[in-house]
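Predict the structure of assimilatory sulfite reductase (ferredoxin).
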Amino acid sequence: MPSRMQRKRGEGQWALGYREPLNKNEESKKNDDGLNVRRRIIDIYAKGGFDSIDPADLRGRFRWYGLYTQRRPGIDGGKTAVLEPEELDDRYFMLRVRIDGGRLNLDQLRTIADVSSKYARGTADITDRQNIQLHWVEIENVPAIWEALESVGLHTTEACGDTPRVILGCPLAGIDADEVIDATPQLRDIHDRYIGNPDFSNLPRKFKTALSGCTAQCTIHEINDIAFVGVVNDEGEAGYDVWVGGGLSTNPMFAKRLGAFVRPEQAHEVWAGITGIFRDYGYRRLRHRARLKFLMNDWGPERFREVLEKEYLGYALADGPAPGGPRDQRRDHVGVHRQRDGRYYVGFAPKVGRINGDLLHVIADLAEEYGSGRVHTTTEQKMVILDVPEERTEALAAELEAHDLRVRPSTFRRQTMACTGIEYCKLAIVETKQRGMDLIEELERRLPDFDEPLTININGCPNSCARIQTADIGLKGQLVTDANGEQVEGFQVHLGGSIGGEFGKKIRGLKTTAEELPDYVERVLRNFRKGRNDGESFAA
Ligand code: SF4
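Done. Here is the predicted structure for assimilatory sulfite reductase (ferredoxin).
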């Protein structure tokens, strides 16, 4: 057994005095703050082209501005783990536009649409963290893209990298009739104070925040590094219950409650304290043990809260109540629903978040014609048009449906998510987006009357960008052996996962080739229907 001191040194925690980088990523961050790469992109790389980019910036610091090289087309998944990173790199980039709280106005939506059409071959994917991702971006165009985005109040700062990523918020904050608290002011406050702030630009790993008072609990607080969940205390005061240390990937853990009640005006300093603990005490030695969940797992919530109060806040937080469960099994905002002010919102579902520049223009035009111009993104790869008069909701729904943006989607369209996959992602082993779209169509055709809640989440590799462990049917991309003994694209199946309940069980031998995926899912669902008790949902 290593001694206590050896073990601490091994974790590379700054607060214990261990500042020397213990791996390449830490060294790169120590050599230069990722935020500094912006100047080099504008002054050097955009002028000199792809070949002028320093590799340490290309594969490291570019992420601080939402830029990843995409996968070179034509390299199959079997080579993903074998080739060197530079052999997988294309000369084009994915650019992630962060949309904190999912809030977009008309100018912003139209600007993203224009950028997509002009610089990204028309691509646009809504992610399950409310961002919009563009592809085929060339380094020469990045300054012009930033200029366009920033002129309407959007940016890509810390959209990726070991930083505080986009802050999730309910797309109906301030609008929903049932919400506990409108978290918009706190979300803006945290964004404006801390995003792009060098105090928090070198964290051990990515850091995900959610902040919401929505009773649907659509920001899925259980799987964020830090989440503020709207609650009302015994005195009738609205504030937040704080959850810390959630995360999925290859070692999934749900966040734990600190049991503290955070008043709205305290939210920013509690965020800074918890993020500071991660920065100072987080494990930096091994990338796969660096997320905050590992520290929380070792410390437990009581010690975590004690350190937060004593070392970071300088005062004790009041105890507070836990939130109730979500109001519905479906934590989304799809469909036509009444707002607090008597108008309506209309949530609609593209397939697996895939849209394009032209469609973004259509959506903007519809939001202008039928609503007030507000269009928000959700955490389920969907969008919501706000502020529609009741008498116009059906006309809007019909227009959206005419563009294959379903307001009353099938379960399969509504609850199937897919990550980026092999089309663009260098870590991917299999294709996901097109498979997800095909699967939706097949299941709609084969099981037209299946209408109960059922999540199908498709990932292109063992990472969990599309949250496989929390789906009823989670599909983890890998190579499998087909009936002819050939290695082909396929999926390991995880069954019975749910948010905040159990993680899906990986059952040995439960694998399917990609080609047989629709048959496989159909069989599972037909068997479930045959065997279920009355009223039992798939997740039960
Ligand atoms: Fe890429 Fe894997 Fe994430 Fe999918 S789950 S986007 S394949 S890293």
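The pocket of iron/sulfur cluster is lined by residues 419-421, 425, 427-428, 459-461, 463, 465 (CB under 6 Å).
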